[in-house]
Specification:
Strand order of the largest sheet: 1-2-3-15-14-4
Structural class: alpha+beta
Distance between the termini: 26 Å
Number of helices: 10
Largest sheet: 6 strands, antiparallel, barrel
Radius of gyration: 31 Å
Number of strands: 18
Number of domains: 3
Strand content: 25-35%
Length: 405
């Protein structure tokens, strides 16, 4: 029985080797880092519904419900105010709920055919158009107040976002909703109020890693490396190697990592004040209604980019100074590989790895192989020990006598 017990023990040890092999947990979590990347742009707290009228919603089961429809106001963290409409009818919009600026692809507008038309409605209605008399003439309405204009605009957005059977209670607001829905044309997604592209870069020590490009509507943003990076001698510089403390739209940042620096990582934060573009979406928790920007004061925003420098990794050749990566990102000397979150860049990385006979899983496989070899030896030793009495025939004279009897 003790010999039989060795087999489950060996199996358990083998399973433990697989579960604890270096890199296994990281591989399971995903390699793109998208789940842990800090948000870009502004964050805000919902004040509540401030300028609104009424709408009539007809549900699929035939019920008729009167609901408020109009503009929400939000307080931006760090300063500033936003005016927003609801993207859809579902979810809660509770005062004091916290929201962050979000790309369309990570919001209810992801892959939505009318997302660009919703932005058109925002650009061509209240509060972007404060001339209510002119807006009423365009819509064929007798007159509009701020409340009826907000209600009509919200109704048009609900129709485009969810094909909802909803009408404005005020006849003039309903004329505005019809006009906006009919006239809406496709517009592209607006850029983030503040972003860094790409959000992650890597390369060898002894040179500059990057570039990371600043995207912002602000005239200037501050550039702040993290304290741990500064303590290691890592600097954030421009293409000429000059330290950067401020940057503008299109500025390129590099991480300069001194030779001999141990394996590590660093980050840089850019911050500034700018208007959040109309059409940017703000999302909260799973049960929270998404909101879309209709107006903005100068508001605080920030973005973070990270880098790592694994000295044990041989950098992928960039083809010389100014070579273009697969995502079209310029990599300057002696810059290492730039990692982009775009699908094009990922395909390029996969092709380069395939050509070299390696892959992103190579460190995981190597670590797993070492663990299996060691554990395999232990298992073999356990199974090859001297057989126990209950597993083999007795060899002594007394045993033969017992067998003869």
């Amino acid at each position: 029985m003790r010999a039989a017990a060795r087999r489950p023990l060996a199996t358990a040890l083998l399973a433990a080797a697989i579960a604890t092999a270096p890199g296994t947990a990281a591989a399971a979590a995903g390699a793109d880092g998208s789940a842990t990347r800090p948000p870009e742009g502004a964050s805000a707290v919902l004040d509540g519904l401030k300028t609104y009228g009424q709408a009539v919603l007809r549900t699929q089961d035939g019920a008729v419900q009167q609901i408020p429809a109009g503009l929400y106001e939000m307080r931006v963290d760090g300063g500033g105010m936003l005016q927003t409409y609801g993207v859809g009818l579902t979810g809660f919009a509770q005062p004091e709920a916290h929201y962050t600026e979000t790309a369309w692809s990570r919001s209810p507008l992801g892959d939505h055919g009318d997302a660009g038309r919703i932005r058109w409605v925002l650009e061509h209605s209240y509060p972007q158009l404060n001339d209510l008399a002119g807006l009423a003439r365009a819509a064929g309405a007798a007159s509009l107040t701020a409340e009826s204009a907000a209600a009509g605009t919200q109704v048009a957005i609900w129709r485009l976002a969810e094909s909802a059977q909803v009408e404005a209670a005020d006849p003039e607001a309903e004329k505005l909703a019809d006009y906006l829905q009919r006239a809406a044309a496709q517009l592209p997604e607006p850029p983030a109020s503040l972003g860094l592209d790409p959000g992650e870069v890597s390369g060898p020590v002894g040179g500059r890693i990057g570039p990371v490009t600043v995207r912002t509507g602000a005239q200037s943003v501050t550039v702040t490396p993290d304290a741990a990076a500064l303590a290691m001698g890592v600097r954030v510089v421009d293409a000429d190697g000059q330290p950067l403390t401020t940057a503008g739209n299109g500025s390129k940042l590099y991480f300069e990592v001194p030779a001999g620096t141990p394996d590590g990582e660093a980050s840089v934060t850019v911050q500034g004040a700018m208007k959040v573009p109309v059409g940017r979406v703000f999302t909260g928790g799973e049960q929270t209604r998404a909101l879309i920007v209709a107006g903005s004061s100068a508001s605080a925003a920030s973005a973070v980019a990270t880098t790592e420098w694994p000295t044990r990794v041989v950098p992928v050749s960039t083809g010389g100074q100014g070579a273009q990566g697969s995502a079209g990102t310029s990599v300057g000397p002696p810059t290492g590989q730039t990692r982009s979150t775009t699908g094009t860049a990922e395909r390029g990385d996969e092709e380069r790895l395939a050509a070299s006979g390696s892959s992103g899983a190579t460190p995981v496989i190597a670590g797993l192989a070492v663990g299996l070899v060691v554990l395999g030896g232990v298992v073999v030793l356990l199974l090859r020990k001297r057989p126990l009495e209950e597993d083999t025939p007795a060899a002594g004279p007394a045993a033969r006598a017992d067998q003869d009897a």
